[in-house]
Design goal:
The N terminus is likely disordered. The longest helix is centred in the last third of the chain and has 29 residues. The chain is about 75% helix and about 0% strand. The protein is mainly α and about 190 residues long. α5 runs antiparallel to α8.
């Protein structure tokens, strides 16, 4: 019981932290190290990356790998789009909605048809990638992108590991984790 309370308290603490992923200047987004760190300090990106891995691990068969793979591929495309002159509307709203939706998908233990699951994954990734691409300094785009993508992948793996651990030891915690992520997403939308 103490482990459940500690895990839930930790999730709430993370969910209540301010969103920091999209507040820095372009100059701060110009190195491999800044790319590695960036997904870890912004609550919106951190929760979304963990949630993608968590939700993917709850799926059957090939979707376990297809969801994060689709996310990573579209994350790259979104990043490159963010580096261009193209303007994607409602980026922050799309990011916040992704956190909310992923939390709800986890809480409901949703298993959608492959096309719907991959479509959602791609849509969420587009907003996250675009935001980070728009922030990266063009002169150091490759270094920042490599770090940001590496950290995002590690967070997917961490979310998947958490899902397997929860499933094996504390299955009821998955719903609570999903609800906490959804609450963070709702808070981000309201901000």
């Amino acid at each position: 019981m103490k482990m459940k309370v500690a895990a839930f308290t930790s999730l709430l603490a993370v969910a209540s932290a301010p969103a920091l992923a999209h507040t820095g200047s372009v100059a701060e987004h110009n190195s491999l190290l800044s790319g590695l760190i960036h997904p870890l300090v912004g609550i919106d990106h951190l929760l979304a990356m963990l949630a993608v891995g968590f939700w993917a691990a709850m799926q059957k068969d090939n979707l376990r790998l297809q969801i994060p793979l689709t996310f990573m591929l579209v994350l790259i495309a979104g990043f490159m789009l963010g580096q261009s002159a193209f303007s994607l509307p409602v980026v922050e709203g799309g990011i916040a909605t992704s956190v909310l939706m992923l939390g709800l998908l986890i809480a409901a233990a949703a298993r959608l048809p492959a096309a719907a699951a991959l479509g959602l994954s791609a849509t969420f990734a587009l907003f996250h990638g675009y935001a980070h691409g728009a922030e990266a300094a063009a002169s150091s785009m490759t270094l920042f992108a490599a770090g940001f993508l590496g950290s995002s992948l590690m967070l997917h793996l961490g979310g998947g590991f958490a899902a397997h651990t929860v499933k094996a030891h504390l299955p009821a915690l998955a719903k609570l984790a999903g609800l906490a992520i959804a609450a963070a997403g709702a808070t981000l939308l309201a901000a």
